[in-house]
Amino acid sequence: MATVKLNNIKKVYPNGAEAVCGVSMAIENGEFIVFVGPSGCGKSTMLRMVAGLETITKGDIEIDSKVINNVSPADRDVAMVFQNYALYPHMTVRGNMAYGLKNRGLAKAEINTKVNEAAKMLKIDDYLDRQPNQLSGGQRQRVAMGRAIVREPKVFLFDEPLSNLDAKLRVQMRIEIKRLQRRMGVTSIYVTHDQTEAMTLADRLAVINDGRIEQMGAPIELYNNPKTLFVASFIGAPHINLIPARFENKKLVCGNLKLPGFKNLPEDIELVLGIRPDFLRPDTKGQLEIQVDLVEQHGADNLVYGALKNSSNDTELCFKTTQNTLPDIDSNLKLKFEQKHAMVFNKSTGERLI
Amino acid sequence: MKNINWRLASNHLILLIGVIFMSLPVWVAFSTSTHTAETILREGLQFWPGSNFIETYREVMFEEAGVMKSVLGITMLKNSLILGIGFAVGKVIISMLAAYAIVYFRFKLATPLFWIIFLTLLLPLEVRIIPSYEIVAGLGLLDTNFGLIVPLIASATGTFYFRQFFKSIPDELLEAARLDGASPWRFFVDMLIPLSKTMIAAILIIMFVVGWNQYLWPLIMTTKEENYTLVIGIKQIYQILSEGGELPQYQKAFALTIMATLPPVLVVLFFQNWFVKGLVESEK
Lengths: 354, 284
Ligand SMILES: Nc1ncnc2c1ncn2[C@@H]1O[C@H](COP(=O)(O)OP(=O)(O)O)[C@@H](O)[C@H]1O
Ligand SMILES: [Mg+2]
Hints:
The structure holds 2 protein chains of 2 kinds.
Chain A: E1 4-12, E2 18-27, E3 32-36, H1 43-51, E4 58-63, E5 66-67, E6 78-81, H2 93-103, H3 108-121, H4 137-150, E7 155-159, H5 167-184, E8 187-192, H6 195-201, E9 204-209, E10 212-217, H7 219-224, H8 229-234, E11 241-248, E12 251-254, E13 257-259, E14 271-275, E15 281-282, E16 288-297, E17 301-308, E18 316-322, E19 332-336, E20 343-346
Parallel strand pairs in A: 3-8, 3-9, 6-7, 7-8
Antiparallel strand pairs in A: 1-2, 1-4, 4-5, 9-10, 11-12, 11-14, 12-13, 14-20, 15-19, 16-17, 16-19, 17-18
Helix pairs in contact in A: 2-3, 2-4, 3-4
Chain B: H1 2-33, H2 37-43, H3 53-62, H4 73-104, H5 110-119, H6 129-138, H7 145-149, H8 156-167, H9 171-179, H10 184-195, H11 197-212, H12 216-221, H13 230-243, H14 250-280
Helix pairs in contact in B: 1-14, 3-14, 4-8, 4-11, 5-8, 11-14, 13-14
The complex binds adenosine-5'-diphosphate and magnesium ion (MG).
Magnesium ion binds at residues 43-44 of chain A.
């Protein structure tokens, strides 16, 4: 168990690529932190700097209040789970899990106890004598986890560990990782590009864009109260509805559509109105009208898609409704949203205005 | 259907002719080696085996003055084995270590150095044989196994193969090992060597054959008969045979030739599964 602190860290690769541009955060003991962001935003680089696999160009990283910039990866006492698992292909499952302990000079009996214990916890105790190529993807994933767990490190690092699994297994492993982390109480940093994974796993979530933290906080806070357009559009499934607009004569204008009820917005710049699909509902007095073109039935919920009418460009809207609401294709439907659920962003800077 | 069969048949015919063409001389050499000197002198090369097999081969391999003035065939066989094995093992060790340094250690000029090593492929031993001889002679290593083997074991080919192989091993494996506390040496021993097993086997086999067939270097390196290898022995035996006034002992020359070809053939036959595996597959 440990605290981790990043103090204004930067990373410039030798080829000049600026992968991380000044990131600071303080991670509490036992916290589960998720870095989420699109591919190439620098999340792996940050994780690898914590692990010691990349040098830190600027700033420093502390584990338990000790700067570890120049400590070798092995001595940082962190364990990492890789996307492709990186199991040692020529060793048995037991060998894979024991390797780190062996290098630390533990006695054979002690290693055996620890490996057996971890294997039982991950339900891989039946495969201990198999080699990785005799295991399924999910089992390999568990072995990779096991290799991290037996070490009892101060910090767990996960780099998109579930990306190579099929959807069902991914959900299952996600739950298991969360349980395991709760139970062991080990400080963890988890990197993913999948917002669902991020939302469900994180105690706190850092949304990363272009090497910077856009916003950091509890998942639900980021969902309810995104500070930027990027966060609003990255967090939340289905995707938030975004309607390009301008503010004219105290009304939000989008083509022929004029929405009252907005105040104090700048008049001369392009804006974006954002409303989550969860907060739109059919209502004859609704402010927005769509022509339905698709209904997705997910079971308990339906997702209804349609083109926004009266807008200047073709904007697609989506809203979430119950199983029984099945509007006809091509029918027109008015949708209502509460004023408090409407967010307005500056289009060019992404800054949230309302 | 008929067409394909014809094509198949003709392919096989061509292959068959190739096989006969390649192996018939060896067969004739073997058959002839089992006849007596008189028969050979009278009737020439023999196609069918004779009855003198045991006698000839015993004389060649185990009797003093059987072929050479003093050295036994079996001693030459031993020398050849030492050269072949030492050559192969040395090459594997040197080229693995070189490839390890080039691929895994970030030092300046690693890439240019690799290409320089690669360029030495263009410089065979024959080109540098006089300076090499000077050095080995200067160190007083003539007529020693060390002096015979060491100058030969630097290997651009081996380095190249291992480099390509190491480069195909995913980086994450190294990173996982580093986080698991493996030192560079442990990583080499615990990961790279086991992962390269089939590769090592393939190179060992190829290099054993190449080492076994070395001629020029052992010839100038060895001055005493007891250090001769089989390949040199063959060369000398023809001289001896044609010098003396007695009946030329062709059967012994053929027997020695057969003995010199046999070990590489056996090695390849025996290890061919490994050999093919090493060339086509990499277990990662
Ligand atoms: N070894 C490297 N050398 C140069 N640039 C790199 C290297 N690794 C990553 N990058 C660059 O740094 C940026 C961030 O990469 P990465 O941290 O892997 O992104 P993510 O994991 O968020 O997808 C990318 O633009 C990538 O091209
Ligand atoms: Mg990544």
